Fold these 3 entries.
Entry 1:
Amino acid sequence: TTFINGIDFVRQIENYRNSGRLLPTTLFVTFDITNLYTMITRHGAIAALQKFLSKHADNRRIHGMTIDTITRLARLVLDTNCFVYNNKYYQQIRGGAM
């Protein structure tokens, strides 16, 4: 799920709670990518992320998440970035989101 801004996030969380899907076992992962330039290839960005995570990981985990899981989440963001321009939807196929 993507959110437009903080207010949208709060509203969607409230809807999630009101629908009965928010359980004590529910886990949320949020992240915001900043300063990722479109000239960096996706492969290069993933390689840099994996190098950074490997350097700072404890038993190939960062705060309980495996490096593989974090890498898969990063690929999800990079591979499904969409935007609207002049009321038309586009999927970014080169580089990364700004």
Entry 2:
Amino acid sequence: VLGLLVWTLIAVTTYYLNPAYSWVMFVSISLWILTILFFVTYLFQLQLKFYTIPWPLVLMIFNAVATVLYISAFVTCAAAVQPTSWRQWDYNRRAAASFFAGVVMITYGVSTFFSFRAWKGLGSNAATSQVTDH
């Protein structure tokens, strides 16, 4: 939802006049689509059909790459916001997109941490850490 907010807020402005926003659009839309694909994969448990793929590792790498890409998108988006813009509504939407890009960046960073824990087998949530073998 947060990634959707980023590219929607940019898309309703005249982003094509500033090439920096094209990078933000590329990152946000690409990662939004890939995140939706991972979500659907886990929702329908399709990862169980492809058991040879190390899914915790794949998810950790995806989240790490997404974090790095969103860092660049956040910095680009925040640097391109012009407070003296003659279109006040463009400024407001771009500033909001910068804020949400920062939130998405932090969210992917936290997901990377939990994916790393799941990959290392340290338990990704409270339910899996409470299971003991007897």
Entry 3:
Amino acid sequence: SIPIAKQLASIKVLGKGSDLEKAFATAALVYNNSADPEGKLSKAETKSLLQTQFRGFIQGQENKPKYQEIISALDEESENKLDFEDFMILLVSLTLMSDLLQEIKNVKTTK
């Protein structure tokens, strides 16, 4: 497997891309590297990906009802798979409820 940083470097337009563009490209690459040939993730794969790649945002959220609702939906036995759009909505939802978001908001932007 080719490291994400190397995959990003191979996308010429991102060489001068913004931090935000690179962040979204990274999310897309992480998703694509885990997706099946149809470009989708099973719920189990999604949960595993969150636990390995999004740990900082989900850590400590276990007792929040919305988090439990999201994880319960991923635990359900179902053939439903997530496409990239659903995956990004899930990431945004988890980010908005995370304690880490507040910490990010408190980061000083000036010296």
